[in-house]
Design brief:
Elements (H helix, E strand, L loop, with lengths): L10 H4 L1 H16 L16 H11 L17 E4 L5 E3 L5 E3 L11 E4 L1 H4 L2 E5 L4 E5 L39 E3 L5 E3 L5 H12 L5 H28 L6 H20 L8 H16 L1
């Protein structure tokens, strides 16, 4: 997960005949006692304009796990705050944030495994659990859940939103590509842990994909260090030294490319390369 600055909303979400009309209809639907326990069927949020805008904004990557969904699976238009209903920790269901169903700031692109709840093997704890965000949206203990428009502004969500916060301050990766809360205490650590669990960021398949990239980064870093020992030797001919220096520059450039926002797992790559550069300076 990396920080993304949200761009301008697609036209369909600001068109009075689009999102606003749907919000008004949803409000009337939920105000009708005859619809108690029912869920309004929203449509605008899944419009092609919205999907295209989210894909461009996040580079065809899942907003949560940073895996690329392009070419392998359909993208889910994910509601940060669930639109229809919310599943509480005790298993009860309450009405969702229907007024945010077509709100641009509440929409994110997600892969299926981050967005949909199902049983998966978790690499960090070595067991199978039902994970994936689904209809969950946990709040800090003692925080009142919003039941009407604007009340959500007083909430204190436990989940991290990549368009509102910098995930790099909350996460770090182990040598086995397991993501965990970065060093910290209190609410910071609690929010990181909640996000890891709810978004299923340590599901086995995802960890394996990250691990493949991490091993590639380690090999490139090892090659650079080996090449640097050649450059440091006094008996190396100048022509060879120049070739080796060019190789080092090439390998460093290749490492830097893995940090680009459009690359999968760029946060892990950035942290690895920052640590590697620090090691070289010592």
């Amino acid at each position: 997960m990396i920080r993304i600055s949200r761009g301008q909303a697609p036209k369909i979400l600001v068109d009075p005949k689009g999102a606003k009309s749907e919000r008004d209809k949803a409000a009337r639907f939920y105000a009708d006692p005859a619809n108690a326990g029912k869920t309004y069927k929203f449509k605008i949020y899944s419009h092609d304009q919205v999907k295209e805008a989210l894909t461009r904004l996040f580079g065809a990557k899942c907003a949560y796990c940073e895996s690329r969904y392009a070419g392998t699976q359909p993208m889910d238009v994910e509601h940060f705050r669930p639109k229809g209903k919310v599943l509480e920790d005790d298993g009860t269901e309450v009405r969702g944030y229907y007024w945010l169903a077509s709100e641009w700031t509440n929409l994110l692109p997600s892969c299926i495994d981050c967005n949909r709840e199902r049983r998966q093997w978790l690499a960090d704890i070595g067991t199978v659990r039902s994970v994936g965000k689904g209809e969950r949206f946990p709040l800090e203990k003692g925080c009142k859940r919003a039941a009407a428009p604007d009340e959500e502004k007083a909430e204190r969500p436990l989940l991290l939103n990549p368009c509102l916060e910098d995930p790099e301050k909350h996460f770090e990766f182990t040598e086995d590509a397991i993501v965990r809360p970065s060093r910290g205490a209190g609410a910071v650590k609690e929010r990181a842990q909640a996000s890891i669990e709810v978004y299923a960021l340590n599901r086995s398949g995802l960890v394996e994909e990250r691990l493949q990239l991490l091993r590639l980064l380690q090999r490139r870093a090892g090659m650079i260090e080996s090449l640097m020992t050649i450059v440091d030797r006094e008996d190396v001919p100048e022509t060879i030294r120049t070739l080796v220096e060019d190789l080092i520059t090439h390998e460093m450039d290749e490492l830097r490319k893995t940090c680009e926002p459009g690359r999968p797992f760029s946060l892990m790559a950035r942290q690895f390369i920052d640590d590697f550069r620090e090691r070289l300076r010592q």
